[in-house]
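Usage

Read records sequentially. Each one opens with the input sequence:
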Amino acid sequence: MTITRTRGLPSQTGHRGGTDFRDLVRHQDDAFVAFACTLTDEEWERPSLCAGWTNKDVLAHLVLGLRLPPPRLLLAMARRHWSFDAANDVLSREYASGCTARELIDAFDRARARPKGIGRLLPAPLMLGDHAVHHLDIALALGRSGVLSPQVTDAVLAVETRVPNPFIPAAARARGIAFRATDTNWSRSSGRDLEVLGTAENIISVLAGRHHAIPDLTGSGVATLTSRL
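and closes with the structure output:
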């Protein structure tokens, strides 16, 4: 896969110069499966960056995102006063408790080839961001970094800072702040005198609402960004 950058977005040669997010999703999911296979059972039981969830719960959530039928999600929401978060929490925990980590990895690997249910409804740019953020939820909690490719981080940052997301208000958090990734070529300017610098992975994680990497960010805009989480 040959990727070049255009206007801050990675683009795939041979696809009319635009970003092929479907290829990037496949690239990211390949990397996640390889990463997941390196973790021990003990590491899967450790807390993730998702509040109240173990790393294994996050893995179960990723699988459900690719295979959960919408009617089942709606039923779970109806039983919990139409709260998506509450339904998502219960479904993910229940699924995680009934499977081993190895079984969940295999289920993810199968499901990503042919997403069903809600997995077919999410646009590829948002799917890429969701999978990358949850990869970081596990990796950063275990003290691991550098797990995402520069092509993926740059594409996720471009989407996070520009595209409204009904599940993660990253674009609203980024409003009026300039960002610069210190380990890739990605940056975003702003008309205000506020700037945040850090590794691409740390910026992605914080924009997604995780406080873990805030101490690793620098710049005049860190306090403003923190106040928006």
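Summary fields computed downstream for this record:
- Confidence is low (pLDDT under 50) at residues 1-17.
- The chain has eleven helices and five strands.
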